[in-house]
TrEMBL record:
GO biological process terms held by the UniProt record: mitochondrial translation
Sequence segments annotated as region (Disordered): 89-132
Protein known as: Ribosomal protein S16 domain-containing protein
This protein's record includes keyword Repeat: no
Residues annotated as transmembrane: none
Signal peptide bounds: none
NCBIfam families: S16
One of the Pfam families matching this protein, by short name: Ribosomal_S16
HAMAP family linked: Ribosomal_bS16
Family, per entry: Belongs to the bacterial ribosomal protein bS16 family.
Top-level taxonomic group: Eukaryota
Biased composition (Polar residues): 123-132
Length: 132
């Protein structure tokens, strides 16, 4: 059964908090998790100067060790908490850009090429009115 570490949203409107959970990857969004690994509260309470993150590091490492794949948002939080190193295998890598094709030549460039090739033709091939 493939497992995923992801955030589960709880709370009321404008006061959401998230639980970091290990859940079956194929389960529905609101399914009961296999284990709750921690809590993330992005709101500042009065008198607080930082957001609240509480988690069980040992259990998170266990689930990563047995093959659970964290979601993108979970990866960001785990990197903030130094559980995952930035640039780890879970960190999304930027795609390489496709090689760019040279732009199509403009009409002026085509005319320059034609006149340049016309000037390079040997004189013996070109005929003038004097030669006739």
């Amino acid at each position: 059964m493939p497992m995923r570490i992801r955030l589960s949203m709880h709370g009321r409107a404008h006061k959401r908090f998230f639980q970091l959970v290990a859940v079956n990857q194929r389960a529905r969004r609101d399914a009961k998790p296999a284990e709750v690994l921690g809590i993330y509260n992005p709101h500042l309470e009065p008198g607080q100067d930082h957001k609240t993150i509480e988690w069980s590091v040992d259990r998170i490492r266990y689930w990563l060790h047995v093959g659970a794949v964290p979601s993108k948002s979970a990866v960001k939080l785990l990197e903030l908490g130094n559980i995952l190193k930035p640039g780890s295998i879970y960190h999304p890598k930027p795609r390489r850009a496709a090689p760019e094709e040279p732009p199509a030549p403009t009409l002026a460039e085509i005319r320059e090429r034609v006149t340049a090739t016309a000037e390079e033709t040997p004189e013996s091939v070109t005929t003038t009115a004097e030669d006739k």
